[in-house]
Amino acid sequence: MTLTGKVVLVTGSARRVGRVIALAFAAQGARLAVHYNTSAGEARKLVAGIKTLSGADAEVFRANLLDPAAPKKLADAVAKRFGAIDVLVNSASLYERESFRDADPAVWDRQMAVNARAPFFLAQACAPWLAKSGDGSVINVADWSAHRPYVDWASYCASKAALLSVNKTLAKALAPGVRVNAVLPGPVLSPEKMGEAEKRRIADATLLKRLGTPEAVARACVFLAGADYTTGAELSVDGGRLIA
User: Fold this and answer.
1) Low-confidence residues of the chain, pLDDT below 70?
2) Assigned domain for 98 exists
3) Does residue 156 carry a catalytic annotation?
């Protein structure tokens, strides 16, 4: 796929990994739909930066993906603004820690809603536009821990495992006209308060003995958008952590 002029919706793109993904697509000449929920200032700053750096068209769209009605409203708003949707990147995610003893159904439901339910229904809402594109693509940002879960992140890991099932389901449902693939990041962006000793321990647990970068995830997303004979795949970007 040539990304110049294509419309790319990246959810959760105001901050962190989603922001870097949006910038990578903009650098390829894509038009960007920048989704956010609470980070309005950062989303607007990103759009301004995209227009300044690459000249690509970009716009902000707010949606709370906890709301079951939000996916369709978001897809409709993006299609109305740009007249097309060629690539959907489901990057928005909740990442909440909880011990097994203190597990809360509300935390479980929130993470399932944002991390698995919203990507499914966003793909459903975008499907007519993706099919019309002629080379539509959905990219789901999952996590290596969907295959090797942490005890104290049970609901998060379960939601990402659910997303991998959604990935396969969508690949079947949208074939042959739309490709659907997943990226499985490993340790590419540490929590802001994580100490250096903990970062070193995590890096040492990978085969490459180093932390990754959001840019590595973004490159994988751009690659999958153009991988015209790949669908239903899971691409690990984890320094070998999954098999270590």
Assistant:
1) none
2) yes
3) yes
